Amino acid sequence: MRILLFGFDEFGEKVAKYLGKKNLKIIVFDENEEKKQKKIFLM
Questions:
Q1: Structural domain boundaries, residue 25
Q2: Residues 37, 7: contact at Cβ < 8 Å?
């Protein structure tokens, strides 16, 4: 499973933490520091 989330915010953080408890690998990286957009890949 691969999920891509744009606009990483508080809700996205809660989702990431919840899915992290499900033992899914989570990769978070900044695409554009200026806009502070983050992508989360769940594999």
A1: 3-42
A2: yes
> Looking at the whole model, is its pTM more than 0.85?
no
Number of domains composing the chain: 1
CA distance 28 to 6: 11
Q: Which residues contact 33 (CB under 8 A, 6 or more apart)?
A: none
DSSP, res 7: S
**28 in Cβ contact with 38 (< 8 Å):** yes
Q: What is the pLDDT of residues 10-40, one digit of tens each?
A: 776 777 777 667 655 555 555 555 554 455 5
